[in-house]
């Protein structure tokens, strides 16, 4: 049952969900007996993107999965909820470039002097995805998400290499934005919607928000023995 | 009197030494003494509400009978005590009787203040009269429903339980032959009114014992106040001060922190506004006095540190109930060995506030967190975050059970239902009432 | 107009030290901080603070560039462009400044670093100094600064081990370190596995490894001011974070709790200083004008003494905006404000150990590690090498977290995404460690700071312009020191080593983090033609202005700068208290 409460679309926080446990409306709406079930229900629900359109979100989900594919090392971007993470981030001050100097004039210069475009992350995604899908259609006759993975990889390789321009945005700039946010989504605390089940942390052996190694400073090369914990208290 | 004055020689010497205007100097010295007695009596804690001027009252006391507010004790003639003569003032403080003859609510610890010497009352009066700024501010109306709002039952209560001042003073000042113990007894039983929180109360809310001479109930631990349990200040090994030495007590009263633990709840206020301002000599006198109070509970086995907990945690063996929650939430500061980091993050191993019958303090601090404010001699504020949104009642019960059992603590387990019930007794933490610790 | 005896601009280490010293001297002090108040108990509380995304990635403790930034170019003939996104360096903002987000590497200085020009000339002659290099002495000696290094360490609660105290060998500290008057207040931090492996390999190779001095407390500590620190548990959330354990020294933990108790002290946050106000002669400051950033109200304060203790380039920016002294002109090589802007040459190489060995890179502390100084400063013979400067080399496992690790994995020919990249990332995260060459950077005639002609900040003032690139001397120094890492890595049992160094012709790249150790621009010295400040960090031009910070360094040294900044702050404060306040005026008469 879709929740009429718009707050439920806010970042999946166990603490947030738990905060609801004391409210009557939660019980009326959800009918869950236990918070863990409530959580599971929330996590299992298909995320509906808020900033990105359905088509943009399909592109994002597919592209992120190529950057971090599901394989023998561990889950890929799709399973980790990376697209969800990015859509949520684009609704935060970061998405609006709140900490970027965005005063003109905007002048092109050598790459090593850094980013000089008049676009904040939301613009980069909106314009970049539209142009990348247009490029995909022009090259392969299909939207990016509908292509076989080797064709998707070829497009991403072209973007990374800088040979394609996506309208006003150099392909390389778009690719780097995408790669950066994908890795953030895979390895940030799950409270931001990505790194589902702490799959990213389990893969690399990062213990998360326990932040105490007093007894394990030097184990003569042995691996740290305890699994990860989220800021929310979720463990894996 | 003469002897009392000898306890404030520094204050007297400072002011008497150099100024030629002798009368004024006498008055100044008296006011200084009065300020000192006010600190020893911790008047601020109850009579200064957040956001209101000093001593203008307004702190709410939520009691079973309703809500009462502390009064304005500035020298304002209409809202404060400006019209009180020294005799009125003495009667209100020592006997809980207003100039109009009605009785104060016993939230005002007049059974303790009954012990104040004439000189200290005189100094206190000088201070409140001449050195405190008059604030024309009314305290909020008490909200006590009839018939409990009638003050005459209080008079009966007072008749039954409040000691006559001269007798009270006599008891307190003549229990010990050692003058240091006598001074300690005076400070603890009188202005310090430690028993108001740390003594159990009888069926009519009277303190069971007001002096060391009254038997072992005195200062043997009080009932929870706002969800914080005042522990025993007697010599029980596990739940009292049996393993604290004199310096531990002095440091605690001066800074709110020592190698054994840190203050929380109302005690932090009592230290901030009160005991930290006392002289070293007075703090040592209080400590010496507390150390002679024999255990109320004589059957406690000595606490012995058990190394098993730490070695299990170190091996990532979390089979004990609550162990994993402890390692994920608590060990970063309190350590796997439960010893914490002296005077910064308090030890949980062997800490007397954790091993008592009532686990409310432990549940409360996990629920609400706590800030130990900076003191003059220890300017750092130390904060424990709250875990209310991170742990369920079941998890709190598990981790409290773990902490109460681990490292040789061996105190009884608690259940999820216990946690739920205790949480209902704990007021919401209102951060706007607290100074944000800025370090 | 409100008056204070002294106004201190910037609530970082330098400002907090000066404010503490001046209130102790009985002055009324107002400290202005452009950023917000910071409370470890609120925003730094466990476990919310141990959040890589919010901390090091979204950079919550760093300067908000949308309000003010600078422009950067490599050479004088280029158009400088705005530094729009935080990347190459990360100035702090808010109470505590960089002292809140730093790592905690707390070095003294090598005595020769303070007199590098003299030392080089003594050993190799003046001709050894390349054309265009503005090599200078500080004008103060290590012996003069030693009591202030000592004082600062006891405030910071620094962990370390001495080599010599009062001339006697006392421990296995840095054999190249200058003599000390007393030991570190706390014993050294434990070696991580990575650091211990490096230590063993260095010893075998005949080098002289030592425990890095760390302002991360190895034990609970109560400092000179009664402020308390908890001990570091190697959680690794140091650089970019406020330490939830109160174990990393910061102004917030180590000075401000005591300072705030002083009724003579006032701290005003969210106060962006627009200029230091000067009288008509331009030789005396009358106060400062600042903008309340929350209300946009302009406020002027008057003061007898003005301390500039903002971040290095903000100090220079304020001097230029306030017209204190003469702006540097690289063409005529005249003027001093903006002259000798310097950086550091830092490159991090990577070493992979066998799969059976886990480096647990997330375990660490910002200031802890093992270093060798065999290639730092003047500790080796530069004669045949033909360059000036050097680098300590160290394993400073400071708590590598996975977003940063993932961002840095791949590249240099290896895939940066896809399945092969993932495999590489997992292996690199679990089994590798970093070895840094943390080197000096010399000053050059055409590397400097001035005001940008085009771009403005949110308050309508011109941005600062940085003209900087890597020069031959420093590139060759970096390459030489990095070449020494390969055999050490081999001795550590490396299965693979990726050496990273600067390359000839490679311009400074603003897109990748290098270091926030910027220096110079308003340097101290003994000649007002080549320094903005005298040896007491007092402006030559406006004698009631003191400028405290790494802006005073005539060249970038191999060590992290905070230790030197703190000692110089106490040194300047000492001379203000003992001499200046008794008779205000220039402390150095020419």
TrEMBL record, chain B:
<dbReference type="GO" id="GO:0005506">
    <property type="term" value="F:iron ion binding"/>
</dbReference>
<dbReference type="InterPro" id="IPR008168">
    <property type="entry name" value="Cyt_C_IC"/>
</dbReference>
<feature type="binding site" description="covalent">
    <location>
        <position position="46"/>
    </location>
    <ligand>
        <name>heme c 1</name>
    </ligand>
</feature>
<dbReference type="InterPro" id="IPR036909">
    <property type="entry name" value="Cyt_c-like_dom_sf"/>
</dbReference>
<dbReference type="Pfam" id="PF00034">
    <property type="entry name" value="Cytochrom_C"/>
</dbReference>
<feature type="domain" description="Cytochrome c">
    <location>
        <begin position="317"/>
        <end position="407"/>
    </location>
</feature>
<keyword id="KW-0349">Heme</keyword>
<keyword id="KW-1003">Cell membrane</keyword>
<feature type="binding site" description="axial binding residue">
    <location>
        <position position="47"/>
    </location>
    <ligand>
        <name>heme c 1</name>
    </ligand>
</feature>
<dbReference type="InterPro" id="IPR014353">
    <property type="entry name" value="Membr-bd_ADH_cyt_c"/>
</dbReference>
<feature type="domain" description="Cytochrome c">
    <location>
        <begin position="29"/>
        <end position="132"/>
    </location>
</feature>
<dbReference type="InterPro" id="IPR051459">
    <property type="entry name" value="Cytochrome_c-type_DH"/>
</dbReference>
<keyword id="KW-0408">Iron</keyword>
<dbReference type="GO" id="GO:0016614">
    <property type="term" value="F:oxidoreductase activity, acting on CH-OH group of donors"/>
</dbReference>
<feature type="binding site" description="axial binding residue">
    <location>
        <position position="198"/>
    </location>
    <ligand>
        <name>heme c 2</name>
    </ligand>
</feature>
<feature type="signal peptide">
    <location>
        <begin position="1"/>
        <end position="23"/>
    </location>
</feature>
<keyword id="KW-0677">Repeat</keyword>
<protein>
    <submittedName>
        <fullName>Cytochrome c</fullName>
    </submittedName>
</protein>
<dbReference type="GO" id="GO:0009055">
    <property type="term" value="F:electron transfer activity"/>
</dbReference>
<feature type="binding site" description="covalent">
    <location>
        <position position="194"/>
    </location>
    <ligand>
        <name>heme c 2</name>
    </ligand>
</feature>
<dbReference type="GO" id="GO:0020037">
    <property type="term" value="F:heme binding"/>
</dbReference>
<feature type="binding site" description="covalent">
    <location>
        <position position="197"/>
    </location>
    <ligand>
        <name>heme c 2</name>
    </ligand>
</feature>
Automatic annotation (TrEMBL), chain C:
<keyword id="KW-0560">Oxidoreductase</keyword>
<dbReference type="InterPro" id="IPR007867">
    <property type="entry name" value="GMC_OxRtase_C"/>
</dbReference>
<dbReference type="Pfam" id="PF00732">
    <property type="entry name" value="GMC_oxred_N"/>
</dbReference>
<dbReference type="GO" id="GO:0050660">
    <property type="term" value="F:flavin adenine dinucleotide binding"/>
</dbReference>
<feature type="domain" description="Glucose-methanol-choline oxidoreductase C-terminal">
    <location>
        <begin position="450"/>
        <end position="569"/>
    </location>
</feature>
<protein>
    <submittedName>
        <fullName>Gluconate dehydrogenase</fullName>
    </submittedName>
</protein>
<keyword id="KW-0274">FAD</keyword>
<dbReference type="InterPro" id="IPR000172">
    <property type="entry name" value="GMC_OxRdtase_N"/>
</dbReference>
<comment type="similarity">
    <text>Belongs to the GMC oxidoreductase family.</text>
</comment>
<dbReference type="InterPro" id="IPR036188">
    <property type="entry name" value="FAD/NAD-bd_sf"/>
</dbReference>
<dbReference type="Pfam" id="PF05199">
    <property type="entry name" value="GMC_oxred_C"/>
</dbReference>
<dbReference type="GO" id="GO:0016614">
    <property type="term" value="F:oxidoreductase activity, acting on CH-OH group of donors"/>
</dbReference>
<keyword id="KW-0285">Flavoprotein</keyword>
<feature type="domain" description="Glucose-methanol-choline oxidoreductase N-terminal">
    <location>
        <begin position="142"/>
        <end position="343"/>
    </location>
</feature>
């Amino acid at each position: 049952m879709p929740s009429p409460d718009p707050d439920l679309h806010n970042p999946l926080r166990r603490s947030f969900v738990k905060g609801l446990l004391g409210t009557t409306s939660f019980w009326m709406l959800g009918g869950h007996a236990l918070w863990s079930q409530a959580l599971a229900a929330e996590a299992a629900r298909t995320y509906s993107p808020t900033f990105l359109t359905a088509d943009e979100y399909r592109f994002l989900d597919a592209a992120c999965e190529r950057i971090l594919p599901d394989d023998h090392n561990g889950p890929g971007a799709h399973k980790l909820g990376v697209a969800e993470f990015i859509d949520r981030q684009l609704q935060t001050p970061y998405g609006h470039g709140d900490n970027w100097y965005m005063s003109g004039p905007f002048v092109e210069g050598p790459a090593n002097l850094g980013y000089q475009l008049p676009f904040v992350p939301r613009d980069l995604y909106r314009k970049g995805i539209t142009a990348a899908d247009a490029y995909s259609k022009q090259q392969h006759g299909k939207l990016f998400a509908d292509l076989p993975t080797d064709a998707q990889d070829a497009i991403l390789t072209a973007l990374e290499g800088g040979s394609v321009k996506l309208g006003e945005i150099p392909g390389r700039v778009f690719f780097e934005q995408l790669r950066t946010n994908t890795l953030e989504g895979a390895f940030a605390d799950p409270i931001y919607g990505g790194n589902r089940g702490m799959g990213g942390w389990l893969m690399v052996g990062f213990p998360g928000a326990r932040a105490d190694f007093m007894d394990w400073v030097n184990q003569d090369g042995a691996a740290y023995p305890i699994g990860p914990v989220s800021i929310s208290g979720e463990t894996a | 009197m003469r002897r009392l004055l000898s306890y404030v020689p520094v204050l007297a010497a400072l002011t008497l030494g150099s100024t030629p205007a002798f009368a004024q100097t006498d008055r100044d010295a008296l006011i200084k003494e009065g300020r000192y007695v006010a600190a020893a009596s911790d008047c601020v804690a109850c009579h200064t509400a957040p956001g209101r001027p000093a001593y203008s009252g307004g702190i709410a006391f939520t009691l079973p009978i309703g809500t009462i507010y502390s009064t304005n004790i500035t020298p304002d003639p209409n809202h404060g005590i400006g019209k009180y003569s020294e005799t009125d003032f003495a009667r209100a403080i020592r006997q809980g009787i207003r100039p109009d003859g009605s009785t104060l609510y016993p939230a005002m610890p007049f059974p303790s203040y009954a012990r104040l010497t004439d000189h200290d009352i005189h100094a206190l009066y000088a201070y409140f009269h001449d050195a405190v700024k008059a604030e024309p501010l009314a305290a909020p109306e008490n909200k006590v429903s009839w018939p409990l709002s009638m003050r005459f039952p209080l008079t009966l209560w007072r008749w039954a339980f409040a000691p006559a001042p001269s007798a009270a003073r006599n008891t307190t000042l003549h229990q010990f032959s050692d003058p240091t113990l006598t001074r300690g007894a005076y400070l603890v039983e009188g202005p310090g009114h430690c028993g108001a929180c740390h003594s159990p109360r009888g069926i009519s809310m009277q303190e069971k014992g007001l002096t060391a001479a009254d038997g072992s109930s005195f200062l043997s631990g009080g009932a929870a106040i706002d969800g914080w349990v005042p522990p025993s200040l007697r010599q029980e090994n596990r739940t009292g001060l049996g393993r604290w030495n004199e310096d531990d007590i002095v440091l605690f009263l001066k800074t709110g922190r020592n190698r054994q633990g840190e203050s929380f709840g109302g005690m932090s206020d009592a230290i901030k506004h009160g005991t930290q301002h006392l002289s070293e000599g007075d703090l040592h006198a209080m400590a010496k006095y507390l150390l002679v109070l024999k255990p109320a509970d004589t059957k406690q086995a000595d606490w012995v540190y058990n190394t098993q907990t730490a070695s299990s945690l170190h091996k990532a063996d979390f089979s004990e109930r609550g162990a994993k929650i402890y390692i994920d939430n608590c060990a970063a500061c309190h350590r796997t060995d439960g010893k914490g980091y002296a005077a910064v993050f308090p030890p949980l191993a062997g800490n007397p506030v954790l091993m008592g019958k009532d686990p409310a303090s432990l549940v409360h601090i996990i629920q609400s967190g706590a800030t130990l404010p900076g003191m003059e001699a220890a300017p750092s504020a130390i904060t424990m975050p709250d875990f209310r949104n991170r742990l369920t009642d079941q998890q709190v019960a598990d981790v409290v059970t773990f902490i109460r059992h681990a490292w040789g603590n061996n105190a009884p387990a608690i259940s999820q239902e216990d946690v739920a019930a205790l949480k209902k007794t704990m007021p919401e933490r209102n951060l706007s009432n607290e100074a944000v610790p800025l370090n | 107009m409100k008056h204070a005896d002294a106004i201190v601009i910037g609530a970082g280490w330098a400002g907090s030290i000066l404010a503490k010293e001046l209130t102790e001297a009985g002055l009324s002090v107002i400290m202005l901080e452009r950023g917000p108040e910071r409370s470890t108990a609120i925003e730094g509380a466990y476990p919310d603070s141990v959040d890589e995304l919010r901390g090091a990635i979204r950079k919550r403790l760093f300067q908000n560039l949308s309000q003010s930034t600078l422009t950067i170019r490599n050479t004088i003939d280029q158009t400088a462009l705005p530094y729009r996104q935080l990347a190459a360096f990360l100035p702090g903002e808010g109470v505590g400044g960089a002292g809140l987000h730093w790592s905690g590497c707390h070095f003294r200085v090598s005595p020769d670093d303070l007199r590098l020009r003299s030392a080089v000339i003594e050993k190799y002659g003046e001709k050894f100094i390349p054309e265009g290099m503005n090599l200078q002495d500080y004008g103060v000696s290590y012996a003069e600064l030693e009591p202030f290094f000592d004082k600062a360490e006891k405030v910071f609660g620094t962990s370390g081990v001495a080599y010599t105290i009062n001339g006697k060998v006392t421990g296995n500290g840095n054999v190249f370190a200058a003599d000390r008057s007393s030991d570190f207040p706390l014993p050294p931090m434990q070696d991580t596995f990575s650091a211990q492996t490096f230590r063993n390999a260095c010893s075998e190779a005949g080098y002289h490894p030592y425990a890095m001095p760390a302002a991360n407390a190895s034990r609970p500590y109560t400092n000179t001011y009664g402020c308390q620190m908890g001990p570091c548990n190697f959680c690794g959330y140091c650089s970019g974070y406020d330490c939830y354990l109160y174990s990393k020294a910061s102004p917030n933990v180590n000075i401000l709790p005591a300072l705030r108790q002083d009724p003579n002290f006032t701290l005003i946050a969210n106060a962006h200083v627009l200029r230091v106000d000067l009288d008509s002669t331009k030789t005396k400051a009358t106060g400062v004008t600042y903008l309340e950033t929350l209300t946009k109200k302009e406020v002027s304060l008057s003061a007898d003494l003005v301390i500039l203790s903002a971040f290095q380039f903000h100090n220079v920016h304020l001097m230029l905006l306030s017209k204190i002294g003469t702006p540097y002109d690289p063409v005529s090589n005249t003027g001093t404000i903006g002259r000798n802007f310097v950086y550091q040459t830092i490159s991090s190489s990577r070493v992979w150990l066998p799969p059976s060995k886990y480096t647990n890179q997330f375990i660490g502390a910002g200031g802890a590690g093992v270093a060798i100084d065999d290639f730092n400063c003047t500790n080796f013979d530069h004669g045949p090498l033909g360059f000036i400067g050097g680098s300590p080399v160290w394993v400073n496992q400071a708590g590598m977290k996975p977003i940063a690790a993932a961002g840095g994995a791949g590249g240099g020919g290896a895939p940066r995404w896809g399945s092969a990249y993932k495999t590489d990332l997992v292996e690199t995260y679990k089994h590798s460690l970093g070895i840094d060459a943390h080197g000096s950077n010399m000053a050059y005639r055409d590397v400097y700071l001035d005001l940008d002609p085009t771009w403005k900040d949110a308050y309508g003032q011109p941005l600062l312009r940085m003209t900087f690139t890597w020069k031959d001397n420093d590139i060759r120094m970096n390459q030489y020191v990095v070449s020494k890492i390969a055999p050490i890595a081999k001795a550590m049992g490396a299965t693979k080593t990726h050496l990273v160094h600067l390359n000839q012709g490679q311009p400074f790249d603003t897109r990748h983090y290098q270091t926030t150790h910027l220096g110079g621009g308003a340097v101290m010295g003994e000649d007002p033609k080549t320094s903005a400040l005298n040896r007491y960090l007092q402006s030559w031009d406006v004698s009631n202005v003191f400028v405290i910070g790494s802006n005073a360094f005539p060249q970038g040294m191999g060590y992290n700068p905070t230790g030197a900044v703190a000692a110089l702050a106490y040194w300047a404060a000492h001379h203000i208290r003992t001499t200046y306040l008794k008779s205000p005026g220039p402390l150095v008469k020419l």
